[in-house]
Design brief:
Length: 248
């Protein structure tokens, strides 16, 4: 497999300088470094770096990243259909449910702490008005019609899925979209506007990924998950997201 520098100037990835429009062949012994390098994954997502499968350039970022990560280990039957298997992870890693608690239309409402009360810093919340402008003052929270909750760890993980819980249904429509790697890959894990009004008290929205997917820590946001809530102005609805994962 190869990568191509599509920039107009030379650049360096994983310690290797590649001239403009030139290819670099990845040696199998260095493949793991290319698979976990945040600059490689970010530039594949933006198109500054193009993956080549030794046959053609792969221009779709999502396909290119999956090919680089060699993402299709699922066994298949003779007709090509995937065979169901249990999720597995690396030796020495452990299973974890990571909690993120928050409230719509409420600045600073994230609760994401360790057992000693220390803020883990993985979560953030932003509010937006009808015209799309961001709300930064508590006095304007009653104008919020969009609540954006971001979650991004500083450690590598195998993400499996997640569940969103609520103590009671919201008053009015409160619709949810879930996007992974927003602004980069924009993978839609929750699409169509999941209306929390239809989940009963104590109910949950379950997003089981069926099998784990490796995500490296990345300042660019490859491992970021974004929850977008659209709701009546000022609606304050409490919910909790449980991310299901394996980690070192």
């Amino acid at each position: 497999m190869k990568v191509k520098n599509t920039k107009e100037t030379a650049d360096t990835w994983v310690g290797m300088m590649i001239e403009p429009n030139a290819y670099y062949t990845i040696d199998p012994i260095e493949l793991s470094r290319w698979q976990t390098d945040s600059k490689v994954l970010t530039d594949l997502g933006s198109g500054d770096l193009v993956f080549n499968d030794d046959i053609q350039d792969i221009l779709d970022p999502g396909t290119a990243i999956n090919l680089l990560l060699q993402k299709d280990p699922t066994p298949r039957d003779s007709t090509g259909r995937p065979i169901t298997r249990r999720a597995i992870t690396n030796d020495g890693w452990h299973y974890q449910l990571h909690c993120l608690e928050f409230q719509t239309s409420k600045l600073g409402s994230i609760y994401n702490k360790d057992e000693n009360g220390n803020d883990l810093g993985f979560g953030s919340v932003k509010l937006f008005k009808e015209d799309g402008s961001e709300i930064t003052l508590e006095a304007e929270e009653n104008q919020a019609v969009t609540t954006q909750v971001d979650w991004m760890t500083n450690h590598e993980m195998d993400i499996i899925g997640g569940q969103l819980y609520q103590a009671a249904p919201p008053v009015g429509d409160c619709r949810l979209w879930i996007i992974a790697a927003p602004g980069i890959l924009n993978l839609k894990f929750g699409q169509g506007g999941i209306n929390l009004k239809h989940a009963p008290a104590g109910g949950a929205v379950n997003a089981d990924g069926r099998a784990s997917k490796y995500l490296p820590p990345s300042p660019a946001g490859i491992n970021k998950f974004r929850l977008i809530f659209k709701h009546p102005a000022g609606l304050q609805h409490s919910a909790m997201m449980l991310f299901e994962l394996f980690k070192p």
